[in-house]
Design brief:
single chain, alpha+beta, OB fold (Dihydrolipoamide Acetyltransferase, E2P), 3 helices
Length: 144
């Protein structure tokens, strides 16, 4: 069997394993194996095929890790607008209870709400910054 065939089979096996496990890094290594297969088709020696596989696979992993580290961390699901449509919405609070909780009318229903840490209990316009269970966590809306 030709070297290129072995490289293609190994790349295919890694892609199949990635589909089962969901490990994105296996795709990077499979890209290195595909590069080695292309090098085999070009007639490069076996030693250099291994070097190409290592450089392309390992290099793509290093590049991907650097890209992921440079991106900001996603907010937890309970405070992430992409997960919960209520995050960032405005509500009006007339008055708070002594313990910093209140009831707000939002989306056609009454909701329990509480202040975010460090907020003062005074009526006005508030922004939903988090949803914990069925309780809205509120922060005073900043005026521009």
């Amino acid at each position: 069997m030709a070297d290129s065939t072995l490289w293609w089979l190994a790349a295919g096996a890694l892609i199949a394993a990635e589909l089962v496990t969901g490990t994105f890094y296996m795709l990077m290594i499979a890209a290195g194996l595909a590069a080695a297969a292309l090098a085999a088709h070009a007639g490069v020696s076996t030693t250099w095929q291994w070097v190409i596989a290592a450089l392309v696979g390992g290099g793509s992993i290093l590049i991907w890790r650097r890209i992921k580290r440079s991106q900001p961390q996603a907010a937890p699901a309970r405070a992430n607008h992409d997960v919960n449509m209520d995050i960032g919405e405005q509500v009006h609070v007339d008055a708070f209870n002594d313990d910093g909780t209140c009831s707000v009318y939002y989306r056609g229903a009454h909701w329990d709400a509480a202040l975010a840490a460090g907020e003062t209990a005074s009526g006005g316009s508030f922004t939903i910054v988090e949803v914990v269970g069925s309780r809205l966590i509120l922060k005073k809306t900043q005026r521009s």
